[in-house]
Each structure stands twice: as C-alpha cells, then as structure tokens.
Automatic annotation (TrEMBL):
This is Inositol transporter 4. The keyword Flavoprotein does not apply. It is found in: Membrane. Belongs to the major facilitator superfamily. Sugar transporter (TC 2.A.1.1) family. PANTHER family: INOSITOL TRANSPORTER 4-LIKE, PROTON MYO-INOSITOL COTRANSPORTER. It comes from Hibiscus trionum (Flower of an hour). Keywords: Membrane, Transmembrane, Transmembrane helix, Transport.
Length: 430
C-alpha cells in the first residue's frame, strides 16, 4: 500500500480494477472521498470568486473603479494558499494528516463566513486570506492522506479523485453562482455557502482514522495495523504491514543519511540524483501547468466572456459553465486512463493539447484585432458629450476600432454594420 523507495513503471491496472476493489471494500471509497472534499473546496474557491466578483463590483463602487482592488480580492486567496501549503507540510508531519485537514476546514469555513458578512472590501480580502490558508493546507494534505490510505494497484485512480473533485468544485461553483444571480444577497450567498462542504468534511474526518503510514512512523503499530485490516483482505494485511515497515525504515535511513537539520537535508537531497531529478520534474510540471493560464481563466472566466461581448452577468456565468464542465470531463478521462497508460504519456498528450489550443486562441485574437470594424462618433456613444475620456482626449480618434475601445477600458463599440452597444460595459468610464 505505502511501499516506497524504488521507482517502477506505471501500473497497467485497468480502471475497472479500481471499481472492483472499491466495490469489495467501500471503506476505501469513504477514506478517499472524505479527504477529497479538500479538493472540492479548492476547486470551489477557484471558481466562485469569478462570478462573485461581478456582483461585488456592483455593491462596492471603489472595487469597480479600481482594478487593483479586484486583483487583490482574487489574488489574496493565492497568497494565503502559499502560506497554507508551506506550513501544511510541517503540521501534517508533526500532528498528523487528519488534524491538518481538520484545521484546513476550520480556516476555510471561517474565511467563507467572514466574506459572506463582509461590510467592506477589506473584510472580503481578509476572508480570502483565511480561505487561501485552508486551501493551501488541504491541497497538500488531502492527496497525501489518500495516497497513504490506498492500495498501490489503484492509488493513481484514487488520488485522481482529488483532482476530479477540484474540477468538480469549479463546475459546482459556476452552477451555484448562476443559481444565486436572482437572490438579494448574490455574492454573499456565493461565497458563504462554501462553509457547508468544509463543515461536512470536518464531521466526516472526525470519524475517520489517521494515515496508517503516519501512525507507523509515530510507533503506533497496532493502530496502523487495524486500519490496514479494514482496507485489505485478511490474507493481504500482513504483507502490507511488512511492506509498510520496510518502506518507513528505508525512509528513516535515507533521512539520517541526508542530514539532521534543514540545511543539511536540503544539501543532501539536492546531491541525491534521484531526489534531484524528481524535484526538477515536479517543478517543471507545476510551472508548465501554471503557465498554461488555466487559473486565470477560472478566476476571471465570466469577465472574459463579457469582454467577448456578452454583457449580461447571467449569460456570462452560464457560458462559463462550458469551460468548467470540460475541465471536469478531462479529469474523469484522466482517472480512467492514468493507471492504464501512465502519468507521463497523459501529461505529454495534455500539454500538446494545451499548446494547440493556446496557439489557436492567439491566431483568433490576432484575426479579431486586424478585422475589427472601424467606429465613429456617429455610430456610437462617443459623441463630444460621451462617457469615454480616452476617446474624447485622443489626438486621432478616427482610426479607432472595437479593439481600441477594449484596450481603453470601455468595452465594445458599435458601427452601422455590427451593432453592439457601448453601454454593455462600464469598466472605467464614469
């Protein structure tokens, strides 16, 4: 279950093996899904702010006028997640995976409630920090807990449930955003309801055991054995216990060989070719994933849709469901194929798809810019008494087209051929 040390080729287990195993041992599903709610919280936080931001701007004029406030509201969750991930590793090693997840739930629920009752933008920012701390801890600890409580032959599929719940949480957030567009306290409901899954996970985790690997490292041998007996058939539990023992002993031996303090451990780890190659691979994958721009799309998806010409908040949120839905479908496909074809192959295929889509978008944007229709003060609201100071003060406004208006922060314009009211957008024009 938790054997380690040697690097082997990906397991070729069919995905139906996962279903067979979990069907026979539903306790495994309970462990994986309960811990995976941390991924759901992560995904929900990523997606919910995109829709909530539209209505926060309507309630707080300073947020609508100042883009740096919008950026701060969005980014403070990421800043909090950096801190949460940094301390989450230490907390999970010191106090256990279970307690780390419970603390993450408390932080997330507290942040959600602070945002829901925020009387001013700075309270929303504070709540975003709390939520980020919880997300950072959960995003690190939840997959760790699942991997340490999963049989090796289906570990890839079970850990992928965390990724599925992340993308599922994003899709759910867009649905909830759309559902609350007609309510009185739109964005408050959108942000505050996130406390519900955090509370649910907190209750579920109270009834679940600690990670068997962590217990074994704390010399709680019998507790670790009792958990393994719930996960594996009686004839396999002893073998898994022996594998766990060998793995932990090898890990401790490697740790002592590397060094005792942090500096020595860093030097020792970097001097180890296996650790170094793994570190390079991990950093490369994460950097490539972030530079794909998917987080920006998720954080600002409805705003991007509005930039494309769909002014209605409801329409923008509805169209954003397409992106989040396809994202969730991709996670399901990866779960079905990860143990059959391996991690590396799926990663290469997905990166090739990302490159192809980004190049296609670049071409589309270039064509849109070069073919944007010309505008004039007779076709639009850019009359001398218009509301766009950039156009009024421009030395040569005659060459302007719809792209020029977009860059000026005023949204789309209209001409005699393609009518689209400038009143659709009110970003910086007051």
């Amino acid at each position: 279950m938790v054997e380690g040390g040697n690097i082997s080729k990906p397991d070729k287990t069919e995905f139906n093996e996962c279903w067979k195993t979990t069907w026979k041992t539903p306790y495994i599903v309970r462990l994986a899904l309960s811990a995976g709610i941390g991924g759901l919280l992560f995904g929900y936080d990523t997606g919910v702010i995109s829709g909530a931001l539209l209505y926060i701007r309507e309630d707080f004029g300073q947020v609508d006028r100042k883009t740096w406030l919008q950026e701060l509201i969005v980014s403070m969750a990421v800043a909090g997640a950096i801190g949460g991930a940094a301390i989450g590793g230490w907390i999970s090693d010191k106090f256990g995976r279970k307690k780390s997840i419970l603390l993450a739930d408390v932080l997330f629920a507290a942040g959600a409630l602070v945002m829901a009752f925020a009387p001013a933008p700075w309270m929303i920012i504070l709540g975003r920090v709390f939520v980020g701390l919880g997300v950072g801890m959960a995003s690190m600890t939840s997959p760790l807990y699942i991997s340490e409580a999963s049989p090796a032959r289906i570990r890839g599929a079970l850990v992928s449930t965390n990724g599925l719940l992340i993308t599922g949480g994003q899709f759910l957030s867009y649905l909830i955003n759309l559902a609350f567009t007609k309510t009185r306290w739109t964005w408050r409901w959108m942000l505050g309801i996130a406390a519900v899954p955090a509370f649910v996970q907190f209750i579920l985790m109270l009834s679940l055991p600690e990670s068997p690997r962590w217990l074994f490292r704390q010399n709680k041998i019998e507790e670790a054995r009792s958990i393994l007996e719930k996960i594996f058939p009686a004839n396999e539990a002893d073998d898994e216990m022996n594998a766990l023992k060998l793995s932990v002993e090898a890990e401790k031996a490697d740790g002592h060989a590397i060094g005792d303090n942090l500096i020595q451990k860093l030097k020792g780890a970097l001097s180890n070719i296996v650790v170094r190659r793994g570190l390079y691979a991990g950093i490369t994958v994460q950097v490539a994933q972030q530079f794909s721009g998917i987080n920006t799309v998720m954080y600002y998806s409805p705003t991007i849709v509005q930039f494309a010409g769909f002014a209605s908040n409801q329409t923008a949120l509805a169209l954003s469901l397409i992106t989040s839905g396809l994202n969730a479908i991709g996670s399901i496909i990866s779960m079905a194929l990860v143990d059959r074809y391996g991690r590396r192959r799926l990663m290469l295929v997905s990166m090739a798809g990302i490159v192809l889509c980004l190049v296609s978008l670049s071409v589309i944007f270039l064509e849109a810019a070069s073919h944007a229709p010309k505008i004039s003060q007779f076709d639009t609201n850019f009359a001398p008494n218009g509301t766009c100071p950039s156009y009024i003060s421009a030395p040569k406004p005659s060459p302007w087209n719809c792209m020029s208006c977009l860059k000026a922060g005023c949204g789309f314009c209209s001409n005699a051929v393609n009518q689209a009211s400038i009143d659709s957008f009110h970003f910086n024009c007051y």
